[in-house]
Design brief:
Blueprint: H1 2-15, E1 21-30, E2 35-41, E3 44-56, E4 59-66, E5 69-75, E6 83-87, E7 99-108, E8 113-121, E9 125-128
Antiparallel strand pairs: 1-8, 2-3, 2-9, 3-4, 4-5, 6-7, 7-8
Amino acid sequence: MSRLCWVLIFVLVSWGKEPVWSFDRNITLKKDQIYQGVVYKDTIEKPLVLRWTLYKNFGLVLYVNYDGFPHQFVLYRDYQRDMLRLELFGEGHLENASYLYVAFRDFSPKDQSAKLWIGVSGDAQFLRK
């Protein structure tokens, strides 16, 4: 019984491991300020542009343009609504798939700026322009 317990604990801990971040940065953006760069993996490069346009009712409207496709998200500071996850290279079925994460950390009404965290997991890299 003891061995079974240890095997079960090992399996549960290995499933719950944190992603390996190839890019991890805190940024501050003012309204309509553009943050852009290139996400790349091996020889594939895809442009990434993000900006926010509206903060209303504690929600931040964030525009993400990845590989020419526009996305719009509303992020809040509470649990499970503070982060977006976007698959980068269409490899979601692979074990080491790459994802873009953007988390909303704080908003300053005084200078109209939002604090965000950007992370890229998997084999992909991010290069700021």
